Amino acid sequence: MKNILFAFLLFSTSLFAQQNDKKWEKVIAFENEGKVKSANDAVAEIYKKAIADKDEVQMIKCFFYQSKFLQAVDENAQTKILNNLKTEINRVSIPSKAILNLVYAKCLSDYYSKNQ
Description:
Elements: H1 2-32, H2 36-53, H3 56-73, H4 77-91, H5 94-114
Helix pairs in contact: 1-2, 2-3, 3-4, 4-5
């Protein structure tokens, strides 16, 4: 019985991973075609699903892609990215907070060195 449950668990996790991979392939295809808006919309869909599933890995990946697309579209992107980063830091667990706090500190350090 344990072997059957274990096999089912492995099968289901690989199935979900494949679904996310297909979605990310779509995002990359849009990006390669220069369709930043479509790619950002696809990332937003993945992000909503990640929040619902509390999948922090996907949430962080979505944050980085959204930030990348925001820089391509908006000239005031740095402020928005920092605000989004603060929101993400409050949303995730402690290990993920450490990663995002490191990114936040790096962004502030870069901003300070540019505008010194």
